[in-house]
Specification:
Shape: extended
Oligomer: single chain
Number of helices: 4
Radius of gyration: 23 Å
Strand order of the largest sheet: 1-2-3-4-5
Mean pLDDT: 85
Largest sheet: 5 strands, antiparallel
Strand content: 15-25%
Helix content: 25-40%
Length: 155
């Protein structure tokens, strides 16, 4: 049997998160039977919602907006796809990291097989890393804002 899967991301109105939380509590506590009956009637197998929290702005900064507009103008004069790609790389490399999605947390493995948990600043620069290498040796590394290792702790 095949099931249709849908995913939607909905931007909430400003200052509405508490109302959404109250709505979810109401559905789970006092209207649970009604909600489940509605899902059954609509042949819904699973329904879930998540509140996504981000420290990214909803709009681009004036600096980023200007760069994007300048890129659009520059692309109009590109003579080839290779030139257009070079322009994109040049302009997008100038975008402030806070205006794009910067990875703040990584948990996983690196190419050498080490298990890592890395925490980064709002610009996506690593600042703290917990590491257990492929031989089982643990370490904690701290970086300053410029990317220089300031301290590594090993047992």
């Amino acid at each position: 049997m095949r099931y249709e899967t849908r995913c939607a991301k909905i931007k909430l109105k400003p200052n509405s998160v508490e109302r959404v939380r109250e709505w979810a509590k109401t559905l789970n506590k006092t209207r649970r039977d009604e909600a489940l009956a509605t899902l059954r009637d609509e042949t819904v197998m699973v329904e879930a919602f998540f509140l996504d929290s981000s420290d990214r702005p909803d709009t681009l900064s004036p600096q980023a907006e200007k760069l994007i507009n300048d890129l659009r103008l520059a692309l109009q004069s590109a003579k080839s796809e290779a030139e257009a790609q070079a322009l994109r790389r040049e302009y997008l490399s100038k975008l402030p990291a806070r205006d794009v999605v910067a990875r703040r947390l990584f948990a996983g493995r690196d190419v050498e097989g080490a298990s890592l948990v890395t925490l980064s600043d709002p610009d996506g620069k690593p600042r703290l890393q917990l590491k257990v290498d492929s031989l089982g040796k643990a370490s904690i590394t701290f970086w300053d804002p410029s990317g220089r290792v300031v301290r590594t702790i090993k047992p």
